[in-house]
């Protein structure tokens, strides 16, 4: 009865991380919607990839925090403890156009700089052999198997990065690079026919609606 199951009916067990390279990476993913969990899903997927010994890098745009969020985020401590998983925070305090005391010009400059950084990492991947394993402590510019650009789709929503530039960015990536883009409450229709996976994270209920603000360990 287990002939068609990958594990043959055996329960999986944790194995030591052996440096390796993915055999089937190369898709572009887009995670959008008005529900909580887009960034969480992307970071968790990065954790899964790192667990196989793959090299993963997270770039966070538009995510510098707000008055309800502490400066240190739990995901950074978790990522730092995982071999082969690294991150860069390229965001600015507050949120664009929300009158929260932050300067929209700073948001614009940092979103542009963050997107340029994402291009640099992709350029580095072109110079690397993505069919081999990488030094888990190596610089992202030297090649990664999975690149997560968190909130890039939100930056497009805010007209801080053009949709055409994102389409060109996706088209420019190496064939074996898994590219994960998150953000946006609006459908990224500009990625229709370009993204291999598009997930709409819908809100059914949210603690914010009841006045519960960001909580340590769930939102940051």
From TrEMBL:
Composition-biased stretches (Gly residues): 1-10
Q: Which GO terms describe its biological process?
A: cobalamin biosynthetic process
The protein, known as = Cob(I)yrinic acid a,c-diamide adenosyltransferase
Organism of origin is Halosegnis longus
Q: Where is this region: Disordered?
A: 1-24
What InterPro entries does the database record attribute to this sequence? CblAdoTrfase_CobA, P-loop_NTPase
- List the molecular function annotations (GO) for this entry: ATP binding; corrinoid adenosyltransferase activity
Q: Which PANTHER family match?
A: CORRINOID ADENOSYLTRANSFERASE
């Amino acid at each position: 009865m287990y002939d068609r199951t990958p594990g043959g009916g055996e329960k999986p067990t944790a194995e030591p991380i052996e440096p390796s390279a993915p055999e089937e990476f190369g898709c572009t993913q887009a995670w959008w919607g008005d529900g909580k969990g887009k960034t969480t899903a992307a970071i968790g997927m990065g954790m899964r990839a790192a667990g196989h010994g793959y090299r993963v890098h997270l770039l966070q745009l538009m995510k510098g925090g707000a008055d309800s969020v502490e400066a240190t985020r739990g995901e950074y401590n978790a990522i730092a403890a995982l071999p082969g998983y690294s991150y860069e925070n390229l965001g600015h305090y507050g949120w664009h156009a929300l009158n929260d005391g932050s300067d929209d010009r700073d948001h614009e400059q940092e979103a542009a700089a963050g997107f340029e950084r994402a291009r640099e990492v992709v350029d580095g991947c072109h110079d690397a052999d993505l069919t081999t394993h990488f030094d888990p402590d190596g610089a992202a510019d030297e090649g990664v198997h999975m690149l997560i650009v968190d909130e890039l789709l939100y930056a497009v929503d805010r007209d801080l990065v053009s949709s055409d530039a994102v389409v060109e960015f996706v088209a420019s990536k190496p064939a074996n690079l898994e590219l994960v883009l998150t953000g946006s409450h609006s459908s990224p229709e500009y990625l229709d026919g370009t993204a291999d996976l598009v997930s709409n994270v819908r809100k059914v209920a949210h603690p914010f609606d009841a006045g519960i603000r960001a909580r340590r360990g769930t939102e940051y």
